Amino acid sequence: MTDYDSLYAQEPNALGAPTPAIVEALALYDNTPCRILDVGCGQGRDALPLARKGHAVTGFDPAPSGISQMQADAQAEGLDVTGVVSDIMGWKTSQHFDLILIDRVLHMILDDSERQAALDHLLGDLAPQGAVLIADEPSNMQGLRDTLLAAPHEWIRKIDTKSMLLWTSA
Question: 47 and which of 57, 85, 86, 169 could share a cystine (Cβ 3.0–4.6 Å)?
Answer without folding.
Answer: 57
